[in-house]
Amino acid sequence: MRPLPPSLPRFEATLGGAFEAEGAGLHTGKHSRLRATPAPAGHGVVFRRRTRKGVFDVPALWTNRRSRPLCTALQVGEGPLVRTVEHLMAAFAAHGVDNALVEIDGEELPIFDGSAEPWCERILAAGRVELAAPRRYYRVRKRVAYQHKAHKQRIEPFDGFEMSVAITLSHFGQLKWIGPTDAETFRRELAPSRSFGRLKWALPAKIIGLFWFGEPVLKGASARNTLALVGAGAVGGLRMPDEPVRHRALDMVGDFALAGAPLLGRVTASRPGHEHNYGLLALLMQDRAAWEAVTIGEDGRPRPVV
């Protein structure tokens, strides 16, 4: 096997210290507080909720993913839900944080300004500490494709992780982003992008969520935490001309982090969304011939985990 990029860490890592955050959720509108602390090798990212019924740990794994409108949610069995984890998971993944315990006193993570920048700032302040255990990767061995109507995604072998993401929006036309998702690129090109939607659909979405899905949808959304698109522009302006597609790429980084180990492959996506990201990830993980677990040796070459 050829050597992998030298930027890929050989060992698992955790936070160098704890960090805290609080704020309202995008969908529930409810205020929550969380505290993220270091965790040992092999722990993974685990969310912990304390309710009247007890303490519940919810590992951030694709098998625990639950379908909820416009976000990524996690649940174990009939336990409590943890909603809108994708921005924090993306920031953890980009910064190579494999293990952390995230205790939260509510159902939904704070949305802040709708971007991942506040999470990146907290992770950088806490620091990253490598652990003694070799870091496991899931190396894609063959092409896997997903399609639902006009939503298409595929992942194929690649030495590293790279994404090509395209969306088409009225008044904007086609927007496309291509690149790796290392920490520097993520912070510069993806983290500042915000959750977005058409302003005219905000109120209908809240009503549909309540009466159709029976779920809170965008109850906490406002111009302070959501990029509200109007025509070919946005309320308050765009941070980048192609900000919407960059946010879809950000969400994909967080959703694919639910694999349980960093993926080595190239993803190509047209009109992605949370449901479609999960659709591709589930197809990949369920096909054991499509990937193999590897670590990185001292020579930089991948070594199969036996």
From TrEMBL:
Cellular component annotations (GO), alphabetically ordered: membrane
Catalytic activity from the UniProt record: a UDP-3-O-[(3R)-3-hydroxyacyl]-N-acetyl-alpha-D-glucosamine + H2O = a UDP-3-O-[(3R)-3-hydroxyacyl]-alpha-D-glucosamine + acetate
> Gene behind this chain?
wcbS
Q: What is its EC number?
A: 3.5.1.108
Give the enzyme's main class according to its UniProt record, as a single word: hydrolase
Q: Which GO terms describe its molecular function?
A: metal ion binding; UDP-3-O-acyl-N-acetylglucosamine deacetylase activity
Protein name, please? Answer: UDP-3-O-acyl-N-acetylglucosamine deacetylase
Q: Give GO terms for biological process.
A: lipid A biosynthetic process
Q: Tell me, what does this protein do in biology?
A: Catalyzes the hydrolysis of UDP-3-O-myristoyl-N-acetylglucosamine to form UDP-3-O-myristoylglucosamine and acetate, the committed step in lipid A biosynthesis.
Cofactor(s) listed in the protein's UniProt record: Zn(2+)
Q: Give the organism, scientific name.
A: Methylopila turkensis
Q: In which pathway does it act?
A: Glycolipid biosynthesis; lipid IV(A) biosynthesis; lipid IV(A) from (3R)-3-hydroxytetradecanoyl-[acyl-carrier-protein] and UDP-N-acetyl-alpha-D-glucosamine: step 2/6
InterPro entries from the UniProt entry = Ribosomal_Su5_D2-typ_SF, UDP-acyl_GlcNac_deAcase, UDP-acyl_GlcNac_deAcase_C, UDP-acyl_N-AcGlcN_deAcase_N
Q: Which Gene3D superfamilies match?
A: lpxc deacetylase, domain 1, lpxc deacetylase, domain 2
Q: Which UniProt keywords apply?
A: Hydrolase, Lipid A biosynthesis, Lipid biosynthesis, Lipid metabolism, Metal-binding, Zinc
